[in-house]
Amino acid sequence: MTKTLQEIIDANPEAETFRFGDSAELCAEILNLVRSGVKTATCDAASAYGQGGDAWPEVGRRDVALNWDGTPAVMVETVAVFTRRFNEMDAAFVKEQGEFRDLEHWRNGYKAYFQRNGGFSEDMKLMCERFKVIEDFA
């Protein structure tokens, strides 16, 4: 039986919902990497969190990644969360994100992403999160 988003949230009232990426294509691509275990980390602009934004990830909290259409895709549990500046990103964390060839590829991809989604600066603060998949709703 397929679980509805409401059933999942009712069973996990602390859970936040979110989408990876900023398009249907990117969301699907990233979810495939998450499901395959290639992607075990992510980052976003720290300014996207807090008052008026998403709740800051917390170690141990389980959240629901959605498909682009808003249906539940996977439940993930945060295993680590920290901040880092864009210009301080390292190759090891980039590798955990799964979708980039190397640090330069990450820089180019995220610079474009941040420019499309609210602004970019070399020293912008990032929320960096490591997670594990708890349940796949596919």
Automatic annotation (TrEMBL):
InterPro entries in alphabetical order: ASCH_domain, DUF984, PUA-like_sf
Official protein name in the record: ASCH domain-containing protein
UniProt-listed Gene3D superfamilies: Sulfate adenylyltransferase (3.10.400.10)
Membrane-spanning intervals of the chain: none
PANTHER family for the chain: CYTOPLASMIC PROTEIN, CYTOPLASMIC PROTEIN-RELATED
Span of domain ASCH: 18-135
